[in-house]
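Hi P.,

Sorry for the delay on this. The queue was packed all week, but I finally got your sequence through. Input first:
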Amino acid sequence: MKKLNIVDIIIVLGVIIALAVGVMTAKHFRQTADKQIEATSPITFQVFLRGVTVTGEEFPIKSNDKTFITIRNVPYTELNVVKVSSESRKTALPSQKAKEQYILIQDPAQPAIYDAVITISDTAKITKDGAVVGGNKIKMGLPVTLEGESYKFNGTISDVRVSSEVEVEDAGANNLVG
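Then the structure:
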C-alpha cells in the first residue's frame, strides 16, 4: 500500500460529508429550500419614488398599465400597476391663521419635481420570512427600478401586503397635481 497524501484525505472527507448531508436530507433532519414555501398568494407592494423630474403634462406611469421591474439590479418581469399617486414637491410656510401653524404650497423653486407612490401587484411565494418575488424577498426598503417605454425610475419598496384578492383603490388618480 502506498502512503495516503493530504489530497486523498480531503477527497475522502468530502465524500463522507456529502453522504452525511444526503442522508440527513432524506431523513428530514435538514430542510431544503423548496420545503420552506408555505403558499402562493397574490400580493401588492408600493414603490416610493422620491424627487422624480417630470416636465411633461402627465406622469408617465399610469394605472392599469404594465411596468418592467428590476429588483436589486436583476431584471424580473413586467407587472401590473394597480394605482399611481403623484404629487409635486411642497414647501411649508407659516400660517397667519391661529388654528393652523403652517400651510403647504407648491414649491416654486422645484416646479417639475414630484414624489410618487406606485402600487404594483404580483403573485408571490410565501415563506416564514415573508413574500418572495423573482427569487428576492420583498420587504420595505428594497431598491427597485421601474421601467417603461418613456421612463426609468429608481425607488424603494415602502409597503408590502399579502392578500387573498388584489385591492384596487381609486384607479383614476394618475394625473399630475399642479
